[in-house]
């Protein structure tokens, strides 16, 4: 990884901050049902759940999609492929709503040519939106991938802290334990092709489907 410049850090700290208005706090990626079903009941189980999503689910998939969007190789095709990767209706809404909100909030940084392409695409998956903007602004690809995965995990950790519930210290311990996995996924996806995308997080996918009819819900997925 090349030396990260101050502008790169400023971009990533802003774009992937919890304060950036993507609405990420409203989604749990099926975790809400997993807690109700007692598939996740403590910090250790939360760590394993999110770690599996990183290795075998949306974490790895999103990293590959982000990297391809960064290179801007036929962005409309990548956007369509990303939308098709979502295994359930709620998970599709999660990524498309956040991606579209990200584009709207990122207008001050959007080059006009990219803004025109994104407007033509319409609703866009979150990792594609982040990758496209990072590539267009020259923000370091490796740093962007790691920052995206870190923020994605942090959102799920915070959801777990609220749902299980966990104390803040336990949540931070989970986040710290996920750091080696984040680094490994970033390394593994460098140079990966779209054909390398595969996922096998069946319990999480089923949890997302069952979440749609869950009686009480705090989250939208």
From TrEMBL:
It holds the Pfam family UreF. It comes from the Bacteria. Keywords: Chaperone, Cytoplasm, Nickel insertion. One of its GO terms (molecular function) is nickel cation binding. It is found in: Cytoplasm. GO terms for cellular component: cytoplasm. The keyword Nuclease does not apply. Required for maturation of urease via the functional incorporation of the urease nickel metallocenter. PANTHER family: UREASE ACCESSORY PROTEIN F. Belongs to the UreF family. UreD, UreF and UreG form a complex that acts as a GTP-hydrolysis-dependent molecular chaperone, activating the urease apoprotein by helping to assemble the nickel containing metallocenter of UreC. The UreE protein probably delivers the nickel. This is Urease accessory protein UreF.
